[in-house]
Amino acid sequence: MSDGRKPEPSDLEILNHELADARAHERLGVRDGRIAIGWDDRDSLEHPLRVVAREAAELLTSEQISRVRQCGGESCGWLFLDTSRNRSRQWCDMRDCGNLAKVRRFRERQREERS
Q1: Helix H or strand E encompassing 17
Q2: What is the number of alpha carbons within 13 Å of residue 91 lying toward its C-beta?
Q3: CA distance 39 to 26
Q4: How far apart are the first and last CA of the chain?
Q5: Is the Cβ–Cβ distance between 70 and 89 less than 8 Å?
Q6: Pairwise CA distance, residues 68 & 46, whole Å
């Protein structure tokens, strides 16, 4: 994977199961005058999971897997796709985890200056 670890066989088994289910609901159709892949289950509660399974498989097998990062937020752990030019993004969202980290560092500096 992007951090050098290999996936657990049980994790791949789960994804393969969900991917097979997703593929069973894909259909060819016409969209904007072109043939495109669509779904036969848009009203199903399982549809979002099927879309995520397909997108996860596409990401895991693409060159972009090297851009998957884990958020550096103290208690976050979310994964995100680093699309920054220099591949230096640290947080899942600057408005959440990034802002919290900056506020913590600012308060830490203020405490050190007072000491």
Answers
A1: helix 9-23
A2: 14
A3: 5
A4: 44
A5: no
A6: 25
Q: Return per-residue pLDDT of the chain as tens, 115 residues.
A: 566 788 999 999 999 999 999 999 999 999 999 999 999 998 999 999 999 999 999 999 999 999 999 998 888 989 999 999 999 999 888 888 888 888 888 888 888 888 7
Break the chain into its structural domains and give their ranges: 1-61, 67-115
Residue identified by tokens 């990034």 is 98
Query: Would you state the pLDDT for residue 2?
Result: 61
Structure token pair of residue 17: 């199961």
